[in-house]
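ugh ok fine here u go
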Amino acid sequence: MSFRDRLERITGDTRGARPDTEVRPGIGELRKRIEEIMSRRGGAAHAQRPEVLRPRTTLEEAVGGEEVENSQGRFFSVQSVFGPSARHGHALIGELAELDGELAALLAAENSICGCSSGDALFIDTETTGLAGGTGTFPFLVGLGWFEGGAFVVRQLFARDFSEERAMLVHLEELATSRRFLISFNGKAFDMNLIGSRFILNRLEDRVTCMPHLDLLFPSRRLLGHRLVDARLATIERDVLGVRRTDDVPGNEIPSRYLAWLKRRDGACVSDVFAHNRLDVVSMASLLKHLSGLLASAHTQLRLCEGDVLAAGRLLRDRGLTREAMTLFTRAADSADRCVRREARVSLSLIHKRSGRWAEAARIWEALLDEDPLDVFAACELAKYLEHRVRDHRRAMGVISRVIHAGGEMKPHVRRDLEHRLKRLQEKAHAASQDDDREPDMLQGHSGP
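structure:
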């Protein structure tokens, strides 16, 4: 088979076939024929899948910023400054800078943060090529934020390709180690693990992930989770912080935006990713201020969501600040919300009980039963108080009996426990009455000569 035959079989073009005996064409003629065939095929493919090409936008045009060079290479950096009078949702940037280190330490359960100020904190958030984690996930954009002179500075480190990661990590370490602690949102579970693995893969010393760390996700769940559909930062922004994002890129599209950047080198592919990351960093500062304000409300008279006040009281109680917790529970105990009011009173009664203030605790249990005769917790606690502290078994029997016969819905195991307690009280009351009956006889027996 001649070369021409092979070419016609591959291309499918049989026009102008010549017998094998014909003189072989020159190289120039073959090239011309191949170009004609490929141009026809390319035109057909273009007609089937039209593609509109946009003008290429540089990174500087799309997001601003500049190239940064250090000992390990180059990367791209963008810096934004938000002045004290700039507004982010319900708050001003200048208000966010008023950070109390003791409150931040309570939120983080990290005593080493206690003496820090707002200038000691570094906010951090990453954008990556995926959410699965592991060595294949690449943090191509690292957003960092800090307070400086009443303003809030956001610096975004961008690896324009994988070769720039090492230089970006070195710059990240320089910025992080100039601060005293980190603040993130879900950073303990994701961002810090990812950054730590990248330091290892690049054979760099990691002094970042070992820093004291306040992950705002956990206190957000504790203090705000009762009134949110989920604990995502976007949900907290909308329902708590008053931040309204417009045309925000969905998080699941961010990896594909970076891959498009690698392919086309068009800054427009990632401009929305920079905006998304920048808002995340500023929102963390706003969220920290809001959560700290909830804990500080034990010393203020701010009007706050009563459920948030109750949740803040629980956190303070768990951190060992009983007096401050009681202040918040007392405020929530007068709530118009029945569930909040009950939970606050229950928490107060248990603090009184543990402190040995039985009379105060008993008054709360009686008030709970007056409001709801089916309150099993209050009935059991009051009955235990009457049985073991007052030694009034008959009154304790009356409390349990009223709950059992109140006629409300009750789980079988709860009813069995109450009936068992009532039976035991009846036996104790009967034994006590027999002792009382025998006592005069014994005294009378000893009165004779």
